[in-house]
Amino acid sequence: xxxxxxxxxxxxxxxxxxxxxxxxxxxxxxxxxxxxxxxxxxxxxxxxxxxxxxxxxxxxxxxxxxxxxxxxxxxxxxxxxxxxxxxxxxxxxxxxxxxxxxxxxxxxxxxxxxxxxxxxxxxxxxxxxxxxxxxxxxxxxxxxxxxxxxxxxxxxxxxxxxxxxxxxxxxxxxxxxxxxxxxxxxxxxxxxxxxxxxxxxxxxxxxxxxxxxxxxxxxxxxxxxxxxxxxxxxxxxxxxxxxxxxxxxxx
Length: 251
Hints:
Blueprint: E1 2-6, H1 15-28, E2 33-38, H2 43-47, H3 59-63, E3 76-79, E4 82-85, H4 90-98, H5 106-110, E5 121-126, H6 132-140, E6 143-149, H7 152-157, H8 160-167, E7 175-181, H9 188-200, H10 216-223, H11 228-231, H12 233-250
Parallel strand pairs: 1-5, 1-6, 2-4, 2-5, 6-7
Antiparallel strand pairs: 3-4
Helix pairs in contact: 1-12
């Protein structure tokens, strides 16, 4: 079972959008996938057309010591071969994780049943910034996919992921793909920032993918609770190219 975090310390880079497209795309390639939504805004759930009225139990119930809840009770089906583990009370989850002495073990304990349920991939949508939840996710996963908005501030800040991993004493080899996102190929600034991104990671075994172009239809799809594979063929093709790289990297 491959475990992937979609993470960037900066908000607004399209992280949840990428997490949803990767998850649905992998399921369409024949893999059984679960998307674990640990972003407090619940965007992954919403982009799949799933809201709070569609579930009763969440990841929070798994760590709430007042409840005796099974992992299966918190999982809902989102698409064929794609399930979702939603969240609630994200600040309380983060506070609870601060009380844990072994942050490197907590997710292995809480999610240990996933492999027995037959999943090929676990994709975790992380919130922005450094949190105790994200600490635990980085200890849990084998691979990190980092979307980076192709604009100056985001590109120049992307190296902070190495500092984060170093602080947790984790290997930088966990970084599997960098996805340039929201790319506007019409502007010189975007082209320069893309080139800077490729140059920055040039020694990292070609981990920078082709960019995902800025398209209104990607935003529209999310607002309608659909993925690009259900809404826009051109956008879907871009993500399939990313998926091909991802499967080769983590396979």
